[in-house]
Design goal:
heterodimer, A: alpha/beta, four-stranded antiparallel sheet, 10 strands, B: alpha/beta, Rossmann fold, 2 domains, six-stranded mixed sheet, 40% helix, globular, ATP binding (chain A), ATPase-coupled transmembrane transporter activity (chain A)
Chain lengths: 279, 290
C-alpha cells in the first residue's frame, strides 16, 4: 500500500524563545486505509502534530507530504481538501443554524452547486443515521448526535483522511462505542485513512498501529497489543491500564504466576478457566 | 451533613404550556459522611436532581432536608444563603467559570463574598491551592494560561474555599486524561476520608462507582429506579440488563466466568476483589489458607 501521509524530521516551536520545541524531529508514515492512533499525556504534542499535518501550523523544519503533495503555503488548500478533522467539543465547530445547513457548509465553501449539494447532504446525514434531525438546531442535540453531525459534514466532502482529535472524550460510554462503530464502518465503506488522537483504550485498540508522543518526541511505535502489555506505565503514556492488565497485576500480587504479554478479555477468561479447571 | 429527599418532583416551566416533568416522586437518604454515586443515561434527570440539593432548582412537589435546612416549593431565596455555603457544587467543566486575573483572586472570590476579609480570603486560597495539589507559585499566575486539568483544579479549589460540608460533583473527570482522572478521584476520596465531606457524584464511570461509592442511585426517565449499595445494584444481571445500565469491567468479566461455572461468594466489582476470590479457587492455593 502507498503512504498517504509522509512526515519527515518535523519540528515546531510555538515561540522562537521557547526552550523546548512542541514537536521535535518527528518522522513517520501512514498507509492509505490504515487506522493510526496517536497517544500521549496532555501537553505531549499530539494535537500539535495533527494540526501540522492539516497545514494549521507554520512549521519551519521538516516536510509533510499528503497524498503525494508536499505541504507548502501554496498547496495548503489542496492538502486540506484531503483531510477532515473532528475536535473534542462539537459545539466549537458548528456554524449552521440547522443540522443540514451545517453539513452543507463544507460543500458551500467548495462552490458545489445546489443541485449537487442537496442530495449529498441528505446522503451524508443518512450515512450517520441523523436524517430525521436535518431541520433541527445543532445546539439542541446530545453530545453523541453532535459528533454524528460533525461526521456527516466530513462524509459530505469525502476526504481521504479523517483526523479525530479526542472526538469521543466528551461522550458517555454508549455514545463512545456508537461513534467508534460508525467511524469503523465509514472507514471500510469510504476507504478512509483514520488518525485518532485519544486517551481511550478502546479507541486505541481499534487502531492498526499506535504512535506514542512524549514531550514533542515520537518515543514509540507499535501494535496496540504491544503497547497495552506495558501495564502501569500506560498511565504515563496518557492511556488507561486495560482491565486484563489490572487483573494480572492483582493476581501476581497474590502470588499467582501469570502469562506475559497482553491478553484480550477473551484470552484472559480462557487462561483463567483452564488454570482453575487444572486440579 | 445528611440529605433526605421525600417524594420530590420537579417540572421545568411548571404551570405553562411548556411544562416538562423532569423528576417524579424521588425519595432517598444519604447519611452524614456518605458517598453517593448517581448514574443513568444522558437526559435521565441526574443534573436536575443534584441542583435540588442546594436549591438552584426548588422542588415542584415534595421536600428536601439537608441537615437542619428544609427546602419545599415554598422556600424563599432569602432562606437559602447558609445552605448554599455548606453545599459546594462542581458543575461539568467548572473551569469555564474562572474569571479573575490571578488564581489566588479567583479562589478567594467566594469566601470574600461570604464575609471573610481580603487577607483571610487570600490565605484560604493559598491553603486550597495546596489541597488540590498545586504549589504556591501558581497563586499570582493567570488561571487562563494553565492546562485544562490545572484549570479544573483551580475551579475546584474555589468551591472548597467555601469549606462546604457536602460536595456535589457533576461528571468531574469528563474530558481529562486517565492520569488526571485518577488524581481527581483520589483528591475527592481524600476529602471524604480526612475531612468527612459528604460526596454526591454524578458519573458514567462504573469503575469509580465500584471503587468509591457507599451507595448508588440509578436514574431513568426522571425516576429513581433504585438506591442501594453497588454490590446490590450490580449483582442481578437480569435487572441490570433490563434497566440498561453498564456494570464495572470486573463484574462483567466475573459474570462471563460464572457462565463457565466459576461460582462467586459475592459478585466482584474491582480487579482486587476478583483476584481475592480467584485465589480462593486457585489449585494449590485456596486450600493452603484453610
Amino acid at each position: 500500500m502507498e503512504n498517504i501521509i509522509d512526515v519527515q524530521h518535523l519540528s515546531y516551536r510555538y515561540q522562537d524563545t521557547d526552550g523546548r520545541p512542541a514537536l521535535d524531529d518527528i518522522s513517520f508514515t501512514v498507509k492509505a486505509g490504515e487506522w493510526l492512533a496517536l497517544v500521549g499525556h496532555n501537553g505531549s504534542g499530539k494535537s500539535t502534530l495533527a494540526r501540522a499535518v492539516d497545514g494549521l501550523l507554520p512549521f519551519s523544519e521538516g516536510t509533510v507530504t499528503v497524498g503525494g503533495i508536499k505541504l507548502t503555503p501554496e498547496t495548503v488548500w489542496e492538502v486540506r481538501e484531503k483531510i477532515g478533522m473532528i475536535f473534542q467539543n462539537p459545539d466549537n465547530q458548528f456554524v449552521g443554524a440547522t443540522v443540514e445547513d451545517d453539513v452543507a457548509f463544507g460543500l458551500e465553501n467548495r462552490q458545489i452547486s445546489r443541485a449537487e449539494m442537496v442530495p449529498r447532504v441528505k446522503a451524508a446525514l443518512d450515512e450517520v443515521g441523523m436524517q430525521t434531525f436535518a431541520q433541527r438546531e445543532p445546539g439542541a442535540l446530545s453530545g453523541g448526535q453532535k459528533q454524528r453531525v460533525a461526521l456527516a459534514g466530513i462524509v459530505a466532502i469525502a476526504p481521504d483522511i479523517l483526523i479525530l482529535d479526542e472526538a469521543t472524550s466528551m461522550l458517555d460510554p454508549q455514545g463512545r462505542r456508537d461513534m467508534l462503530a460508525l467511524v469503523q464502518r465509514l472507514r471500510e465503506e469510504k476507504h478512509l485513512t483514520v488518525i485518532s488522537i485519544t486517551h481511550d483504550i478502546d479507541e486505541a485498540a481499534s487502531a492498526d498501529r499506535v504512535l506514542v508522543i512524549d514531550d514533542g518526541k515520537l518515543v514509540e511505535e507499535a501494535q496496540p497489543a504491544e503497547i497495552f502489555a506495558q501495564g502501569e506505565r500506560l498511565i504515563h503514556l496518557g492511556l488507561d491500564v486495560p482491565f486484563t492488565a489490572k487483573l494480572k497485576q492483582a493476581l501476581q500480587d497474590r502470588g499467582i504466576t501469570v502469562p506475559t504479554g497482553y491478553q484480550t478479555t477473551t484470552e484472559m477468561e480462557e487462561w483463567l478457566w483452564q488454570s482453575l479447571s487444572n486440579t | 451533613m445528611a440529605i433526605t429527599f421525600e417524594h420530590v418532583g420537579y417540572t421545568y416551566q411548571a404551570g405553562t404550556p411548556m411544562a416538562t416533568p423532569a423528576l417524579s416522586d424521588i425519595s432517598f437518604t444519604v447519611p452524614d459522611h456518605g458517598y453517593l454515586a448517581i448514574i443513568g443515561h444522558t437526559g435521565s434527570g441526574k443534573s436536575t436532581l443534584i441542583q435540588q440539593i442546594n436549591a438552584l432548582l426548588k422542588p415542584t412537589t415534595g421536600k428536601i432536608t439537608v441537615d437542619d435546612f428544609t427546602i419545599t416549593p415554598q422556600t424563599t431565596n432569602a432562606d437559602l444563603k447558609p445552605l448554599r455555603r455548606h453545599v459546594g457544587m462542581v458543575f461539568q467543566f467548572p473551569e469555564s467559570q474562572l474569571f479573575e486575573e490571578t488564581i489566588q483572586r479567583d479562589i478567594a472570590f467566594g469566601p470574600q463574598n461570604f464575609g471573610l476579609s481580603e487577607e483571610e480570603a487570600n490565605q484560604r486560597a493559598l491553603d486550597m491551592l495546596k489541597t488540590v495539589g498545586l504549589d504556591e507559585s501558581f497563586a499570582d499566575r493567570s488561571p487562563f494560561e494553565l492546562s485544562g486539568g490545572q484549570m479544573r483544579r483551580v475551579a475546584i479549589a474555589g468551591v472548597l474555599a467555601m469549606q462546604p460540608k457536602v460536595l456535589v460533583l457533576d461528571e468531574p473527570t469528563a474530558g481529562l486524561d486517565p492520569q488526571g482522572r485518577q488524581e481527581m478521584m483520589t483528591l475527592f476520596n481524600r476529602l471524604h476520608q480526612e475531612q468527612g465531606l459528604t460526596i454526591i457524584l454524578v458519573t458514567h464511570q462504573m469503575e469509580d462507582v465500584a471503587a468509591y461509592a457507599d451507595e448508588v442511585a440509578v436514574m431513568q426517565a426522571g425516576k429513581l429506579l433504585t438506591c442501594a449499595t453497588p454490590q446490590e445494584v450490580f449483582n442481578d444481571p437480569a435487572w441490570v440488563q433490563s434497566s440498561d445500565i453498564a456494570v464495572p469491567r470486573a463484574a462483567k468479566f466475573a459474570q462471563q466466568l460464572d457462565k463457565r461455572g466459576v461460582k462467586w461468594d459475592q459478585l466482584p466489582l474491582t480487579a482486587d476483589q476478583l483476584a481475592d476470590q480467584l485465589v480462593q479457587h486457585w489449585p494449590g492455593m485456596g486450600a493452603q489458607h484453610e
